[in-house]
Automatic annotation (TrEMBL):
<comment type="function">
    <text>Decomposes hydrogen peroxide into water and oxygen; serves to protect cells from the toxic effects of hydrogen peroxide.</text>
</comment>
<keyword id="KW-0479">Metal-binding</keyword>
<dbReference type="InterPro" id="IPR020835">
    <property type="entry name" value="Catalase_sf"/>
</dbReference>
<dbReference type="InterPro" id="IPR018028">
    <property type="entry name" value="Catalase"/>
</dbReference>
<dbReference type="InterPro" id="IPR010582">
    <property type="entry name" value="Catalase_immune_responsive"/>
</dbReference>
<dbReference type="InterPro" id="IPR024708">
    <property type="entry name" value="Catalase_AS"/>
</dbReference>
<dbReference type="InterPro" id="IPR041399">
    <property type="entry name" value="Catalase_large_C"/>
</dbReference>
<keyword id="KW-0560">Oxidoreductase</keyword>
<dbReference type="Pfam" id="PF18011">
    <property type="entry name" value="Catalase_C"/>
</dbReference>
<dbReference type="InterPro" id="IPR002226">
    <property type="entry name" value="Catalase_haem_BS"/>
</dbReference>
<feature type="compositionally biased region" description="Polar residues">
    <location>
        <begin position="20"/>
        <end position="36"/>
    </location>
</feature>
<comment type="similarity">
    <text>Belongs to the catalase family. HPII subfamily.</text>
</comment>
<dbReference type="Pfam" id="PF06628">
    <property type="entry name" value="Catalase-rel"/>
</dbReference>
<keyword id="KW-0349">Heme</keyword>
<dbReference type="InterPro" id="IPR011614">
    <property type="entry name" value="Catalase_core"/>
</dbReference>
<dbReference type="InterPro" id="IPR029062">
    <property type="entry name" value="Class_I_gatase-like"/>
</dbReference>
<keyword id="KW-0575">Peroxidase</keyword>
Amino acid sequence: MTNESAHPTESRKNREGKAPSQSAEHLTTSQGSPLSDTDHSLKVGERGPILLQDHHLREKIMHFDHERIPERVVHARGAGAHGTFTSYGNAGDFCAADFLKPGKQTEVFVRFSTVAGSRGSMDTARDTRGFATKFYTDEGVFDLVGNNIPVFFIQDGMKFPDVVHAVKPEPDREIPQAQSAHNTFWDFVSLHTPAQAHTLWNMSDRGIPRSYRMMEGFGVHTFRLIGPEGKPSLVKFHWKPKLGVHSLTWEEAQLAGGADPDFHRRDLADAIEAGAFPEWELGVQLFEDDGTATFQGIDLLDPTKFVPEGLAPVQLIGKMVLDRNPSNYFAETEQVAFHPGHLVPGIDITDDPLLQARLFSYLDTQLTRLGGPNFSQIPVNQPKNPVNDMFRDGFHQHNIHEGVAPYQPNSLDGGCPFMADLAEGQSFPALEYPQETSGAKKRSEPVSFSDHYSQARLFYRSLSAQEREHIKQAYSFELGKCTDAAIRERQVQCLAEIDGDLAASVATALGLEAPAAQLDVEDLPTSSALSQIGSSWPVDGRQIGIVVGLRGYPQDRALAEAISAKGMTPLIVAPHAGATDSGLEIDRTYFTTRSIEFDALVLAGALPPVGDARVPLDTKAGADVSDSPAADPRVVLLVQEAYRQSKPILCLDEASFGALSAAGIAGEAPGVELVDAQALAGTLAELVAAHRVWGRFPAEG
């Protein structure tokens, strides 16, 4: 054995006496220059814009952007769809963008995605989801690049490589995939406490959406809108789903990860194909642009903060409908390139330091992913309006340019292209608001960025008892996967600053003493808009499993038609494929389905044995066989899962109760009902509209 020096750098010198890479005692640039700050971008003053001269920011993010090819470094696994956006016409007073004029229809392409996993990971991982929308307007492309959570882990783009490195698989063994339940992630967020609010959202049910169709979208950052007279407003963008905001249970997410890793992308594509087109309304929270970039004490330039809807109501300004699936995944969903700097006249950016860094990062990333600067010529990225950018050549140049003078000024091409004229009464270009800025160049942050806990507490205490219980379970599982005791203890201390009961519950699960809060965190008013429970929602596209025996059920066709008439999707589940006696096609077999596919179950009776028509079980050779659903252990499992997941279970006759008895379920349990066939569809719609039977397993508190 070698006798290592006490100094780590000296002990790792190679035989030539040269220090290997990554061995300097202090942090440096890639050229070896020492660094004293890797947390803050170089800005004009504490709240000013980021400077292009910040070499460390550009080098750090440039290297991060090019770490992997060809898939995206983050948001690698996604699903896309085409559609249209129709303006309500009520935004004209505060935004001059053409696509917001009354009744204006604009083509869109939307890409939903997970963040942490690779292209081959599962859809239902606990994670943030991307919600990126490309508007093909008559004034150029506008990209609204957001998430399903309104806050982010970091306040400055300088930290983006750090948080992603922490959540990605650990570098020594490249595991775990698409999971935050490991040492490096919790090490980072327990030390970088601005991440606590976003982490809490991820540990909530928001981290495992039921469907992309049932997911909110947020622009995260504060943007600036410019009205027709040049008056500015600050704005936060919201997407509100028609079907409401709903989530999977933890059990459902795990089942889907094994039984159907493509659960979300399949759900989206199947809904569109079935004509249950997903819809969202675009809304805005408006704030006066008075130069402070604050609203009722909330710093609007801090991307770890959101503004509760009770303080600033969301004004709805248009509706988006997704009605066409991509014809080729690679050509469209994989090659689509979004950028928060793709703006149109009437919409501008602010000095949010995370947004400022994204303006560099997104463009830089496309150079590696899409092979050069001409990615805007890929069909899914092409603007629908005429383009004359005077750019030439480069990788993958498809345009055949005319003219001999790709420069300005010129006389050889008649001075073309000309500069755009300012609109009547306008004194500045519509794409750049003339914001005043001044200050010393420095790496720092405003004092208002230092509150890392009050909004996390607001979010947690706004949720129902069931939702808070799910958060406790999520933290207990995630931290239970951490092998470093110091990390667990440090994160539980962070939870104590958010809520004492939350910290105590997680501490008990981890075998730790419940810590006391050490900080004086402000109690903000709660917001009912943050809870997913308590409302009634449309049932369009909800899937109903009708479980039948070998020959089906005498009224199965009428049942399916009644369910379809309510906007839900009936799926016949039988012992084998084919058709029922009424000629209704069987959609699933006992062997190929699990509870995750259905929002409710209908048990449609039990038929008497049919001699040789019986189908042997696949799960156990020589098992007793009957065509009664209750006799098949796969149906028993299906019913047990649906019951645990608080889904409605309706029986059409007394014979159906055989499955309930075999599953150990009492017929009088909430959401377990014996109903008449005529009343079935109405009862289903009423129960499914609440998403789950929340009273089945009430939580305390």
